[in-house]
Design brief:
The chain is α/β, with parallel strands linked by helices and 477 residues long. The protein contains 14 helices and 23 strands. 31% of the residues lie in helices and 24% in strands. Strands 1, 2, 3, 4, 5, 6 and 18 form a seven-stranded mixed sheet that branches. The chain has a five-stranded antiparallel sheet with strand order 19-20-23-22-21, with helices on both faces. The mean pLDDT is 95.
Length: 477
């Protein structure tokens, strides 16, 4: 039986970061990749292809809806959906080769085996009929779309983030089940391509984990583009009828109509996209053979050092269910590998990690929400500044967006920042540094920003704790 210092189950961000760390430490590693092609979700069916297609959609939509009267009624560019999918495939293939396969070839102590790895003992993994022993093992098998127990769903067929980006023909209409980040990104992507899109959300707002003001502002922006929402609904069932998908719902509201939705409503579309949560890809890994436990939601149970109940087995990435982000998975994978071969002391402060939703306008957040601050301190100090108080936004006729800041109720340290704005994913990093290093409101106010920029919105939110920023000269410090 061949022995490796580290066996890695998975081939995505967490797995590659762990393999790189093992190589840096001079350890031998076996990477066993099954399911998605090498590179995992991000490069194949996640960040890279979806952001590419979102940008294609933005470039198609913007000329048709100019913000300035000088541009008249706009124009409609030529668009070929199948070509967009082909270009996406070419991008993915190039990124997979350059960022993963070529990198793996340069890691001399790392061996790749394609196939689904399964535990056959506390330290043994089998793949393609061959058994390997690992002194340490890392589980980084990722996640996939979580099926929902909706009557009729499996009979009608549905899309997920993988199959939606494999379509060769644009659906004329689309129903998206789930108003979280993935659901909203795909909703706007297809709406910009020309599909009629309706989003269904069971909770009382889209982006349920975000600030209510953020959710409301993004919904307003998406509704202005023609996307319809049903919020707080229950889905009674799904069926096929005359080649269409028919979804029956009840309850909830339709804010666009400013009224309660009908008690029971049937929604009809050509395609149905499921984007209402994820599940860990561990069903066929035989965790019980290794003494690895999962929590009540099915994600692998780890301590703060990414160690499972088996002290020689670690887990990282989406399969542990902490923050399903590519950057987080990579950091967790690297730390898990380091902890496996050194003293287990490295971990992540998740309050310091920024995240983004790549709609247009984008949403970006870091740190605590107002509700979380209330839970921790039983008090809150928050300010929200809308785009009409940001000079750059006024200059470029950008009315969509806001900046919300959450500070410590006594020390004025910045605990959280939440943004809706074009390029919010780029703007958030000033806030991430402020949260990580404990900067105060005065620190941000005292920092001179470039004028005019949308990043001044963060400074305006800080200034809002001491003055009315809607009645303030541009040059006031």
């Amino acid at each position: 039986m061949t022995t490796f210092d580290l066996i890695i189950l998975g081939g995505g961000a967490a797995a590659f970061a762990a393999a790189t760390k093992a190589a840096d430490l001079g350890k031998s590693a076996l990477m066993i990749n099954g399911g998605l092609p090498i590179g995992g979700t991000c490069v194949n069916v996640g960040c890279m292809p979806s952001k590419h297609l979102l940008t294609v959609g933005d470039d198609l939509y913007a000329p048709q809806h100019p913000r300035f009267a000088a541009l008249g009624e706009g124009c409609t560019p030529a668009f070929d959906f199948s070509v967009a999918i082909r270009e996406k495939n070419e991008l993915v293939a190039k990124a997979r080769q350059g960022n993963y396969l070529n990198v793996l070839a340069g890691l001399e102590t790392v061996t790749l085996r394609e196939g689904r790895g399964r535990f056959v003992g506390p330290s043994e993994v089998e793949v393609n009929g061959q058994t390997y022993h690992g002194e340490k093992i890392l589980i980084a098998t990722g996640s996939s779309t979580k099926p929902l127990p909706i009557p009729g769903l499996d009979q009608v067929g549905w899309l997920n983030n993988i199959t939606a980006m494999q379509l060769q023909q644009l659906p004329a209409s689309l129903i998206v089940i789930g108003g979280g980040p993935l659901g909203l990104e795909f909703a706007q992507m297809f709406a910009h391509f020309g599909s009629k899109v309706t989003v269904l959300e069971a909770m009382d707002q889209i982006l349920p984990r975000h600030e209510p003001e953020v959710a409301a502002e993004l919904q307003r922006a998406l509704e202005e583009e023609g996307i319809e929402f049903r919020i707080g609904v229950t889905i009674d069932g799904v069926e096929s009828r005359d080649g269409k998908k028919v979804v029956t719902i009840h309850g909830g509201s339709d804010r666009r109509r400013r009224s309660l939705a009908p008690a029971v409503e049937e929604l009809v579309a050509d395609a149905l996209l499921l984007a209402a949560g994820i599940q860990a890809n561990t069903a066929d890994v035989h965790l019980d053979q290794a003494g690895v436990k999962v929590n009540q939601n099915g994600f692998i149970q780890v301590n703060q050092y990414y160690q499972t109940d088996n002290p020689n087995i670690f887990a990282a990435g989406d399969c542990i269910g902490k923050m399903p982000l590519e950057t987080v998975a990579a950091k967790e994978g690297a730390l898990a590998a380091e902890n496996a071969f050194t003293l287990p002391i490295r971990t992540i402060t998740y309050d310091h990690i920024p995240s983004a939703v790549f709609t247009n306008p984008q949403v970006a957040s870091v740190g605590l929400t107002e509700a979380e601050e209330m839970r921790r301190f039983n008090a809150c100090a928050c300010r929200t500044v809308y785009m009409d108080a940001v000079p750059k936004a006024v200059a470029i006729n950008e009315a969509r967006g806001l900046f919300k800041m959450v500070i410590h109720p006594r020390s004025t340290k910045i605990l959280g920042v939440h943004i809706v704005a074009p390029n919010a994913a780029d703007l958030i990093h000033e806030a991430a540094l402020a949260v990580k290093f404990g900067l105060t409101v005065d620190d941000l106010v005292d920092t001179i920003h470039v004028f005019p920029t949308l990043s001044e919105g963060i400074k305006r939110a800080a200034q809002a704790f001491t003055r009315d920023v809607t009645r303030m000269s541009c040059c006031v410090e």
